[in-house]
Amino acid sequence: MSIRILTIDDSHTLRLFISRSLQKQSKDFEISTAENGHTGLSMAREALPDLILLDYVLPDFNGDQVCQKLLDGASTKDIPVVFLSSNINEARQAATKYTNIKRTLAKPFTPELLYATINFVLRRTSSRDLQNGHSDFTKKESQRSPRSITKPVSRKGAKTKRIASHLSNHFEAQDNESAPKNETSTKKSKAPQTKPLALKTAMTPTLIFRGRTSHFLLSQALRAIHDQRLTGVLRTFLQKDAQELYVSKGQVLFNTTRNVPYYLQGANLNFPDDQKEILNLATHQQSQLGQPFFLSLFKDNILTQEKANNLTLQFGSYLFSRNWLATDIMFEFQALLQFPDFVTNSNLSSLTMQEWTMESLRSISTRDLSQLPILLDERGIPGYTPLGFDIIYKYPLNEDDVKFAQLVDKSQKTVGEIAQQLELSIDQAKLILFRYISLEIFQYWPIATTKP
Questions:
Q1: Contact indicator for 159, 138 with CB cutoff of 8 Å
Q2: C-alpha distance from residue 228 to each of 88, 209, 225 (Å)
Q3: Cα(381)–Cα(415) distance, integer angstroms
Q4: Which pLDDT score, from 0 to 100, does residue 362 have?
Q5: Do you find a cis peptide bond into 108, omega within 30 degrees of 0?
Q6: Measured distance CA(254)–CA(233) in Å, rounded
Q7: Given pLDDT bands bounded at 50, 70 and 90, which one contains residue 447?
Q8: What CA–CA distance (Å, rounded) separates 288 from 340?
C-alpha cells in the first residue's frame, strides 16, 4: 500500500527536491504537491493524505492559517502536519497552538532527515491510533483507489494498518521515540556564515546602512532594500566616482555614475558632427549630476524614449555587474525624500530588485570569470546555503538555471557532472554557478576540500 504525502510549498525547487528524495527512499510513497495554501487545502480534502509537509510562509496563507482550516474540516482534522521553515523558532511557536502539527523541520534539510522525520511522525500517529482501538481494515477499504476515498469515517483504521505495514518494511525499528535531530551535513569545508545586514542611522539622519562586501554580501544589501521597501540611492565605491543605484519603494529605477568614460566603455557612439555639441552637453550633465547619458539624448530628440530606456538599463546593469566581480568594495544606502529632477523625470519603468539583480548578473561573461582570483573548478561541488531554498524561487530563472538547481542536492554532483548531464559547456555551468553563489543560494566546495 502507498503512503500519501502532500507537499505544500511555493518553491518549485523544494517541491521537486522533496518528491525526488522520498521516491529514492521508497517506491511506496505517493507524492502530490501544491504551490499555495488554497490549492493545498483543496487537494487535502480530496485526497486525504497520510501526512502534509507544509511551508510556514505561503503566497496566500500563513502555515498556521492552513493548519486551522485543516482542523476545521471533519475529513482533514486528523491529518498530521510537518512544518517546513527557515525561521524555525517562529514555526515552533505556531506549532504549539495547533494539535495537528507534529513536527517542525528547519530548511534546508537533508533527504535523510526528511525521511526520518516522516518515519517518526507516521510511527507515532499509527501507534496512537492502534492504542485507541482503530485497527479495522475492511476488504472494501483496502481495494479503494487512493484518490477515491471521500468519507473520513472508516479511513482512520485503514490508514493505521497501511502505515504500520509500510513502516515495518521500510523503516528501521527504533526503541527510542525521540525526534530526529536537525543535524547539518558533515563536510570538511563549509561556507562562512554571514550575519544579517544591520540597518542603522548612526552616520547621518538619511544614511540607512553602510558596509563592505568583505563583511556583508552585496546580495544582502539588495535584499534589505527590497524587504524594507526603501526609497533612495545605493552607492557602491568600486571606482573613484561611486555608482548610484536609484530605487523607489524597493524597486530599481536605474544605475549610473559620474565617471562617464567608465560608464560608456565599449559603447559604439557614431553620431553626425552637428550633434557633437549635444553629446558634449550629455557627457557634462552625467559627469556633474549623474544623469544617464542616453536619457539626455532622448530629451534632445537624438534617441527615441524606448531606445534611451533600453540603453540606460543595458549600460547601467553592465556597470553594476562589475560590483559582483570585486573582492571588496564599500557600499552605503541613503534615503531620499525627493529624487533629483533627472530621476523624477526619467519616465523609466521600474524593475523589481530580483529582476534587476539577475539582469546585472547576466551581464557577466566567461571572460570576466576567468579574471577572478579564485577560479571555479569543474570538479568542485555546489550545495544549497541555509537561505537557498527560501529565496531561489523569488528570482526570474531561465530553463538552464532551473535544471541546474534541480541537480544540486545531496547526491553531491560536481559542476562538471551537472554540465555534462544538462549538455552545457563548462563555461555556461560556471556562469550559472557564479550567479547562484553571488545570490547566496549556493555555496561551493572546491576540489581541494572534497572527499577523494
A1: no
A2: 22, 12, 5
A3: 6
A4: 92
A5: yes
A6: 10
A7: low
A8: 12
Residue 45, C-beta contacts closer than 8 angstroms, at least 6 positions apart: 73, 75, 76
CA-CA distance, 189 to 383, in Å (whole number)? 12
pLDDT score, position 157: 45
Tell me the average pLDDT across 399-421: 86
- To the nearest whole number, what is the mean pLDDT of the chain? 79
pLDDT at 127: 46
Give the C-alpha separation, 80 to 54, whole Å: 10
Written as one letter, the residue type at 130 is L
Number of Cβ atoms within 10 Å of the Cβ of 291: 22
Residue 359 · residue 317 · CB < 8 Å: yes
Provide the residue type at 76 as one letter. Answer: T
pTM of this prediction exceeds 0.90 = no
